[in-house]
């Protein structure tokens, strides 16, 4: 163990906070280490010098203390000068404005509504309202009669229905065009395949055995790919 | 038989103001000296002592005798002293150790033993000033530990509770504090 450790032990021993085993170990170290021995001497001198700052004695003014207890327990709100309250008020307002701006900046909706200050985080939820309430709200907003609002809503519904029908017709046309293309493609492919078969059959009339086998393989391939194409298109 | 601090606090909780007075009388001197050694200004130390007692009175209802009263008292005092020192530093006011030769000097004169010879009285006063100056120049975390252990007789375990740290840190701070004081005092001699 190094001297650093034993110096702490010397300090502890001087304040009588060292157990017997540690004391024994320290004693053994001090017999062999002149520097630590000197540290112990210096420590004793320092402690004696520290003791020169004697204790002072100034009794507490108990009456004043009681008075302070009474005044502090009664003085709420604390008696402060007006400028202090004013400065606190200004600081509070500034903090509020900065906080609200920061919230708005990070995407929290801050709005002043009829019910007071509203904070909104994320998408605004669409409130579930009844048809009667909707009519009432629209009335309140636009100062319209109930009949006018119903008429307006009916008009909006008709317009929406028309738009939907146009959209459906358009989709129908697109689908028909796509189906026609597929049909034409299939027909074209079948015409080409039939032409190939016809050529191969003509060729077979005067063919050698090898040519016959080759043509047979080509026909099989055409038929297989034709069947496969039909299956894909069906899917 | 003298009542324990903890028993007096429980009586204070029950509304006996006399128990508070007894506690004040019992602790006024060690508390004043602790604050004085921490802030090195007797007037400030008296104000701090009053603040500590006020806090104790106001917190009496919340007091639970799970820890020693002295530990609780010195924890409040330590926090107040450190806050005061921090305020002084923030306001960049006159460093507290400069008070040495000003307002506190006259007060210490009264402590000189009349039976001392003029030379002995002068040496004694010089030594006191050296100690005050050295302690005031000690970093606050070391000053708390050295003052509580050397002058107020608190055990290292209790100091660890007061400062809210491990006992090993308290011991190493004590050693560091004593070593620094030793160096400062030997230079001044």
SSE topology:
The complex is a heterodimer of chains A (235) and B (189).
Chain A: H1 3-14, H2 20-32, H3 34-50, H4 62-74, H5 82-105, E1 109-113, E2 116-120, H6 131-142, H7 146-204, H8 209-234
Antiparallel strand pairs in A: 1-2
Helix pairs in contact in A: 1-2, 1-3, 7-8
Chain B: H1 5-13, H2 17-39, H3 42-58, H4 69-90, H5 103-109, H6 118-137, H7 140-151, H8 156-163, H9 167-188
Helix pairs in contact in B: 1-2, 2-3, 2-4, 2-7, 3-4, 4-8, 6-9, 7-9, 8-9
Structural features:
heterodimer; A: 235 residues; mainly alpha; two-stranded antiparallel ribbon; 8 helices; elongated; B: 189 residues; Rna Polymerase Sigma Factor, Chain: A; 9 helices; 74% helix
**Average pLDDT taken over every residue of chain A:** 80
**Gap from first CA to last CA of chain B:** 47 Å
Helical fraction of chain B? over 70%
Number of helices of chain B: 9
Give the end-to-end Cα distance of chain A, rounded to a whole number of Å. 87 Å
Oligomeric category:
heterodimer
Largest sheet of chain A: 2 strands, antiparallel
CATH 2nd-level architecture of chain B: Orthogonal Bundle
Structural class of chain B: mainly alpha
**Overall tally of domains of chain B:** 1
Element pattern of chain B in H and E:
HHHHHHHHH
Portion of residues in beta strands of chain A equals under 5%
Tell me roughly what share of residues is in helical segments of chain A: over 70%
Order of helices and strands of chain A: HHHHHEEHHH
Residue ranges of chain B: pLDDT <50 for 5 or more in a row? 98-103
- Average of per-residue pLDDT values of chain B: 86
Task: Tell me the CATH superfamily of chain B.
Answer: RNA polymerase sigma factor, region 2, helix turn helix motif
Largest sheet geometry of chain B: none
Shape of chain B: globular
